[in-house]
Write a structure and sequence with these properties.
The protein is α/β, with parallel strands linked by helices. Helices cover 47% and strands 16% of the residues. A 7-stranded parallel β-sheet has the order 3-2-1-4-5-6-7, with helices on both faces. Helix 5 runs parallel beside helix 6. The termini are far apart. GO terms for molecular function: oxidoreductase activity. This is Decaprenylphospho-beta-D-erythro-pentofuranosid-2-ulose 2-reductase. It is an enzyme of class 1 (oxidoreductase).
């Protein structure tokens, strides 16, 4: 169960090698979290992440999970929930893709959409059903400010995150009053392996800063978290720009 401040004792990470997810796990383990499940494709990176968290004092287990195989999600997540209640599910998997390349190779664009949206819809619904069955818990979904308005530079990724964001908001409404809390996190440009080599955008942030915002959001039982917070006003303005103006922006 969660403590008096809304922080979890048990955590399931979907996307167990995500830098944001691991920064969040480290932060939560330093507070109260004692049991961590890392779900992802079996790999040395997943094993290393588990060992790192064990070194911080957590009991850590891994489970095979593939976002691109929705038919396996019920069995994979069912294995976790069968071992006991989960206070927090952090949906953190996703791929950025290569916009210029993916426009020329539609199957690559489809893979971005299937990972970021279709796989997330499947995993989130399976997790939400299990959380609802136990009567408590939080589902944190990592969205992106890229989903607020599709930009020429990354509209494939942005559109997948827009779909995920809308889905997560609707799921939160559907679960309101059930004891299950859904929180959507919208980071801006995050300096990480996924963005390595890319030009840094204004108001860039770090995995650690996103983790801090997630912890605060859990304590407050927020429904939407922007990282950094200033992006909320910035994206509100961007969202309402006339399309003819928006097209001329260097974005």
């Amino acid at each position: 169960m969660k403590d008096a401040f809304g922080l979890p004792q048990s955590l399931l990470v979907l996307g167990g090698t995500s830098e944001i997810a691991l920064a969040t796990a480290r932060r939560l383990v330093a507070r109260r979290t004692r049991t961590v499940w890392l779900a992802g494709r079996p790999s040395p990176a997943l094993d290393a992440a588990a060992e790192q968290l064990r070194g911080l004092g957590a009991e850590v287990r891994t489970v095979a999970f593939d976002a691109l195989d929705p038919e396996s999600h019920e069995a994979a997540l069912g294995k976790v929930f069968a071992e006991g209640d989960i206070d927090l599910v952090l949906l953190a998997f996703g791929i950025l893709g290569d916009q210029a390349h993916d426009e020329r190779e539609p199957l690559n664009a489809v893979r971005v959409a299937q990972t970021n949206y279709t796989g997330a819809v499947s995993a989130a619904l399976v997790a939400a059903r299990s959380l609802q069955a136990q009567g408590h818990g939080s589902l944190v979904v990592l969205s992106s400010v890229a989903g607020e308005r599709a930009r020429r530079a990354n509209f494939i990724y942005g559109s997948s995150k827009a779909g995920l964001d809308a889905f997560a908001q609707g799921l939160g409404d559907a679960l309101h009053g059930t004891g299950v809390h859904v929180m959507v996190v919208r980071p801006g440009f995050v300096r990480s392996r996924m963005t390595e080599g890319m030009a840094q955008a204004p108001l860039a942030t770090t995995p650690e800063a996103v983790a801090t915002a997630i912890e605060l959001g859990l304590r407050r039982r927020s429904e939407t978290v922007w990282v950094p917070g200033a992006l909320r006003m910035v994206m509100s303005a961007v969202r309402h720009l006339p399309r003819s103006v928006f097209r001329r922006l260097p974005v």
